[in-house]
Write a structure and sequence with these properties.
Number of strands of chain A: 9
CATH superfamily of chain A: Phosphotransferase system, sorbose subfamily IIB component
Strand order of the largest sheet of chain A: 3-2-4-1-5-8-9
Structural class of chain A: alpha/beta
Radius of gyration of chain A: 15 Å
Number of helices of chain A: 7
Number of strands of chain B: 0
Shape of chain A: globular
Oligomer: heterodimer
Order of helices and strands of chain A: EHEHHEHEHEEEHEEH
Largest sheet of chain B: none
CATH topology of chain A: Fructose Permease
Strand content of chain B: under 5%
CATH architecture of chain A: 3-Layer(aba) Sandwich
Distance between the termini of chain A: 32 Å
Helix content of chain B: over 70%
Structural class of chain B: mainly alpha
CATH class of chain A: Alpha Beta
Chain lengths: 163, 265
């Protein structure tokens, strides 16, 4: 299974993804799942510029991602799928039942969110969504880069923003 | 590559280059040197972005007391995270968008989309490329016998010529391209450069490390065994703790141990 990294990160494609995960894990392609970006040529062009020439990037809505997941699974390269929010990942997990683990890589400050880690701020609704994901049998961890400690969901939700 | 079924939206509008007076550009550039001055985990670079843009935003209708100025300052003080040098591209693009009267919703969408690619390009070119390359050049110079002052000046000189050049280029490119700044990020140096810089860094580091090590332990070979043992122990520790202990904590611990050792010695 080549596509086995599923990450929630509101910055989508950035240095932690391309350098932090891309280099040590040998990532060959990224799948960016976002309904709005999938409809926006200029945003796709922008994100494409953040990806090194040797790495492919595919843009999907939730609908097209569900259809194309088997194709991505069969890709011989290592791949990472990214969503910009928890809700999009939840919609994906509901329809693609073979997603077994999800990493929270970065959800930043907005009004209504509480700091859980330095790079994870969550609203009560988002916390409930993450718990619901675990309830479906999906392992949820928080980890920004591979060298950092992977934090289980229980620990994440008890965090006070200093970890 | 676009997913099947994706439908394009209206292209970002293009217009003539923005002619900000030289003193305004100079003021923006100076402010950008402090773009991380109030960095925090909530807004990250946001306050610095607004602070850098402020001299240009005074030119909005109504000036500093106008509603447009206040709205723009509030918008750009919000969360924004990117590589600090490449943030200059965003500063230029956002100034252009505000002064051209681009709708707020489109600017907000751009502020959401821009940080990631700017961070990615900056991390690859600067943190993973240019900084290690300049460090290797400085190490090599030290190993070849340059004085400490010369090594420091060499490092600062080589590093900052690209650093400052990038900030100037970024601001001008952002002002020129506006929200179409993807065109600027497609520059061949930014696309292909990191790979060449990485190769050069690997080569130079391979040459510089043994030369510098020879320069450091040359007169005190009695310590060679201890140094090698410490390196082996450190490498084993890093491997064993991988994934359970963050690297910066280990580096801080090692540095603290060195300081304590030199004090009790």
């Amino acid at each position: 299974m080549a596509l086995d990294l599923f990450r929630i990160d509101d910055r989508l494609i950035h240095g932690q993804v391309v350098v932090g995960w891309g280099q040590p894990c040998g990532i060959g392609f990224l799948v960016l799942v976002d309904d709005e970006v999938a409809r926006s040529d200029w945003e796709q062009e922008l994100y494409r510029m953040g990806v090194p020439p040797e790495m492919d990037v595919f843009f999907d809505s939730v609908d097209t991602a569900v259809r194309r997941l088997p194709e991505y699974r069969n890709d011989r390269r290592v791949g990472m799928l990214l969503t910009g929010d928890i809700q999009t990942m939840e919609r994906l997990v509901e329809r693609a039942t073979d997603i077994r683990a999800v990493t929270v890589g970065g959800v930043h400050h907005k009004p209504g969110r509480v700091a859980r880690l330095r790079y994870v701020f969550l609203s009560p609704e988002e916390e409930a969504r993450l718990r619901a994901l675990e309830g479906r049998g999906v392992t949820v961890i928080a980890q920004d880069v591979p060298g950092a400690t992977a934090m289980p969901l229980d620990h994440l939700l008890r965090g006070d923003g200093t970890g | 590559m676009t997913a099947p079924g994706a439908t394009p939206v209206a292209a970002v509008p293009a217009s003539a280059a923005l002619a900000l007076p030289l003193h305004v550009r100079a003021s923006i550039l100076l402010r950008m040197l402090a773009i991380q001055g109030v960095w925090n985990y909530e807004t990250m670079l946001g306050n610095g972005i607004a602070f850098s843009m402020e001299p240009a935003l005074r030119r909005l209708p109504g000036g500093r007391k106008g509603a447009a100025y206040r709205t723009a300052m509030a918008r750009h003080s919000g969360y924004f995270n990117a590589h600090p040098y490449f943030a200059s591209v965003a500063v230029g693009a956002l100034i252009r968008a505000e002064l051209d009267g681009v709708p707020g919703e489109q600017i907000d969408r751009f502020r959401t989309a821009a940080p990631g690619p700017l961070g990615s390009v900056g991390d690859r070119l600067i943190w993973a490329g240019w900084l290690p390359l300049c460090s290797s050049i400085a190490l090599l110079a030290y190993g070849l016998g340059a004085s400490p002052l010369m090594v420091v000046l060499l490092f600062l000189g080589t590093y900052n010529c690209v650093h400052l050049g990038l900030r100037i280029w970024g601001l001008n490119a952002g002002l020129r391209q506006g929200l179409r700044m993807a065109h600027a990020l497609g520059h061949p140096i930014l696309r292909q450069g990191p790979a060449y810089v990485a190769s050069a860094t690997a080569f130079l580091a391979g040459v510089a490390l043994p030369v510098a090590a020879h320069g450091i332990i040359g007169p005190g070979r009695v310590l060679l065994g201890s140094v090698l043992a410490a390196v082996a122990a450190g490498a084993t520790l890093v491997t064993l703790l991988h994934g359970r202990f963050e690297g910066w904590r280990l580096a801080t611990l090692a540095l603290a141990s060195f300081v304590l050792y030199t004090m009790v010695r």
